[in-house]
Amino acid sequence: MKDRQDPERLFREDIIEDHRPWGKFRVYPHRRAGGIKVLTVNPGAALSLQLHRRRAEFWVALDAGLEVTVGSRVIKPEPDEEIFIPAETAHRLRNTGSRPARILEIWVGDSEESDIVRLEDVYGRT
């Protein structure tokens, strides 16, 4: 029986990877996702330091130049690196590079866009 208390493990267990002569592909459990987005962050810009009450997030770095804060950890992911952000965990995405950089965001859990608690925001949003 699967442990219902570990959303990261449950999500990762449902990822399917298939190797082909030309490379590989990964299929993420999108039917369980509350939302799927590609975020593009301009050079020098950052999202709010924020958390979500009703969802975790699974991020896949698409470009170089990103810096991800998850709790007290700071990660500089390589393209294709995957990061799980548990619900109720402060996190931020920043672009430290010189070109726009993207991240794939998959919501894990039932949520909506308004499920954002901003802890810090350089744009004056609350």
Keywords:
single chain, about 130 residues, mainly beta, Jelly Rolls, 4-stranded antiparallel β-sheet, 3-stranded antiparallel β-sheet, 1 helix, 11 strands, globular
What does this 3D model show about the protein?
By secondary structure, the chain is mostly beta strands. The protein has a domain at 33-120: Jelly Rolls (Sandwich). It has 1 helix and 11 strands; from the N terminus they run αβββββββββββ. The strands form 4 sheets. It has a 4-stranded antiparallel sheet with strand order 3-10-5-8. It has a 3-stranded antiparallel sheet with strand order 7-6-9, with no helix packed on it. A two-stranded antiparallel ribbon has the order 1-2. The longest helix has 7 residues, at 7-13. The chain is globular, with a radius of gyration of 15 Å.
CATH top level of the domain at 33-120 is: Mainly Beta
Query: Biggest β-sheet, characterized?
Result: 4 strands, antiparallel
Secondary structure category = mainly beta
Strand order of the largest sheet: 3-10-5-8
Kindly state the percentage of residues in helix. Answer: under 10%
Stretches where pLDDT is under 50 for at least 5 consecutive residues are none
Number of beta-strand segments: 11
Note the gap between the termini. Answer: 41 Å
Q: Which word captures the global form?
A: globular
**What are the secondary-structure elements, in order, as H or E?**
HEEEEEEEEEEE
Q: How many alpha or pi helices?
A: 1
Which oligomeric state applies? Answer: single chain
CATH superfamily of the domain at 33-120: Jelly Rolls
Strand content: over 45%
